[in-house]
Write a structure and sequence with these properties.
Length: 132
């Protein structure tokens, strides 16, 4: 199985949230784990806000240790992310996807893979969700 890792899943692991064990189990059982380059930026911003400059190192270790492959944002992904915002974005839909969420969604739709996330944002969309 291939999964697309959302920021919420990474934060669950890195901050030992209740869902961390379930997230790690799915990652361990996955053949391939991907993350959008835009989601990488979002995760980096969150980690640096929490850990200061050390957040950059936390991010790099997490990506390496988890074996996450960062996927570039091309025109197809950008178009899918924009459509996700139109359909499921904040102020437009109960899923209330933010910018980072839209890129996670777009990558998952493009490669037909479930999203590894916590919370219920993505369960309110038409995307597959790995935990749920």
């Amino acid at each position: 199985m291939t999964v697309v890792v959302d920021t919420t899943a990474a934060i669950a692991i890195l901050t030992s949230e209740d869902e961390a064990d379930a997230v790690m189990r799915v990652m361990a059982e996955s053949d391939t784990t991907f993350m959008s380059a835009a989601t990488l930026v979002e995760l980096g911003i969150v980690l640096e806000a929490r850990f200061g400059v050390a957040g950059a190192g936390v991010l790099e270790r997490f990506l390496r240790d988890a074996g996450i492959e960062v996927m570039p944002v091309d025109r197809e992904i950008a178009d899918l992310a924009l459509e996700a915002c139109r359909q499921f974005g904040k102020g437009r839909h109960p899923a209330r996807l933010n910018l980072g969420d839209c890129f996670t969604y777009a990558l998952a739709i493009a490669i037909d893979a479930p999203i590894l996330c916590t919370g219920d944002d993505f369960t309110q969309t038409d995307a597959q969700v790995a935990l749920g």
